[in-house]
Structure formats: structure tokens, C-alpha cells
Task: structure prediction
Amino acid sequence: MERMPALFVGHGSPMNVVAQNAYTESLAALAASLPKPRAVLVVSAHWVRPDLRVTSSAAPSQLYDFFGFPDGLYKVRYEAPGSPDLAAR
Result:
């Protein structure tokens, strides 16, 4: 089985979700150059907790942890499939 590379991708401004610029174009090119992953691990520093948490839902909900942006940004949906079996490991 081919291993995927480990990548750090900082999201930058939330507006990049709806923008077309050099940054978003470079992310699209990177995505096109890689095989489709079986899973993606996202580590967030947006919440401070004394313990580690792993989302293990089959259909994790989307969180909008920002405010003050144009309404269109809050309408963007990304319904990522969860992987309870992988999360349990």
C-alpha cells in the first residue's frame, strides 16, 4: 500500500473557501497531484482543552468557528464522511 505524504496546510483566511487566488490555485494543484486519501487527520488549535478529543462520528457536523464574514461563507457546506472504525484505532 502506498503511503500518503504528511502535509501541513494552514487554511489562512476563511475567505479562501470562496476565493480564487494563487493560494487556492496551489492547493487545487496539490490535490490534483495526489491520490485520493482513505482518511484525513485534521488537528485544530481552535479549542483549548485539558484532554485530547477525537471525532468518531460517521457524519461529523460542520462547525463555523468564525464570525463577521460575508453571508455566503456561512452557506458553504462540506459534509465529510467520518470513519468511526479508524477513529477507534
Q: What stands out?
A: The radius of gyration is 15 Å. Residues 15 and 71 are 11 Å apart (CA to CA). Helices lie at 22-33, 84-88. The mean pLDDT is 87.
